[in-house]
Amino acid sequence: MRSLSLLAGVCLSVNALAAVPANEPVQPIAPAEITSPAKVELGKQLFFDPRLSRSGFISCNSCHNLSMGGSDNLPTSIGHNWQEGPINSPTVLNSSLNLAQFWDGRAADLKEQAAGPIANPKEMAFTHILAIDVLRSIPQYRDAFKTVYGSEEITLDDVTDAIAEFEKTLVTPNSRFDKWLKGDKDAITQTEREGYELFKSIGCVACHNGPALGGNSFQKMGLVEPYQTDNPAEGVAGLTGKDADRFKFKVPTLRNVELTYPYFHDGAYWKLEESVDVMARLQLGRKLSDEEIGKITAFLKTLTGEQPSFALPILPPSSNDTPRPQPFE
Length: 329
Hints:
- By secondary structure, the chain is mostly helical.
- The chain folds into 2 domains: about 35-165, Cytochrome Bc1 Complex, Chain D, domain 2; about 175-300, Cytochrome Bc1 Complex, Chain D, domain 2.
- About 35% of the residues lie in helices and about 0% in strands.
- The chain contains 12 helices and 2 strands, in the order αααααααααβαβαα.
- It has helices at about 1-20, 35-50, 60-65, 110-120, 130-135, 140-150, 155-165, 175-180, 190-200, 235-240, 270-285, 290-300; strands at about 220, 250.
- The radius of gyration is 22 Å and the shape is globular.
């Protein structure tokens, strides 16, 4: 009987996967596969540890708040000494599916990205050397790194590797839309289904496709009409110096988009409906009716998946040798 039960479970699983039409431009999010629990746990501690910042107040979670869709719900983030950040903070959720990191793609992967904010004077405002000194001064961290990496000699490479390994677990499977893709026809409403069909027919899927509905290409913001903003970010042009790359940004994921307001690289739009209208006009040359905007917005809200859920890490205490934070300097 047990063999029959297992076989039935396998068949159900295969049928669920087979229910995803081969020609759909969107695929379900796969659950995270954890191969090194100790490394993930260490990365989780580092992600939440504000002692990696000069002030001892800002952690990775400050700008990528896992209680708020992996972002901070601000137009631009607040950095050291209340400095205003230059650009909207992208969600960390499903960020492992991106072809590159940051809006301009200047980091090739999550490991490279993790090093950036620590030494950015407008973000965590520390130095890599001082951040490593803090970790080395804490006996429990030395033990943890020895367990995971085989040495108490903590390096920046190990720190960013652990953070990246934790961030790879921050995926959001089992959204209502994913359940519909897998064959549960009651998972979304008729209005939401019509919104998805509109999303496809007017061309949104040209950029927002794949499991993350984005994150896999760079596109110019304002193809049909120019995008008006006071934000100084130039996109890829800031790296290449080429005018053709001005306002070319990584296409953001639409997963959990109802949680990650305000929208666009400058955080200028707080309402999802307004963002749908702007993108249709500027990118596709389409003036949508209120009813059409409502349907697409309804579809987008079905993309909210299961949020990461875990016990908050208990951080090891500083030692007498730990460098003191400098929150007001």
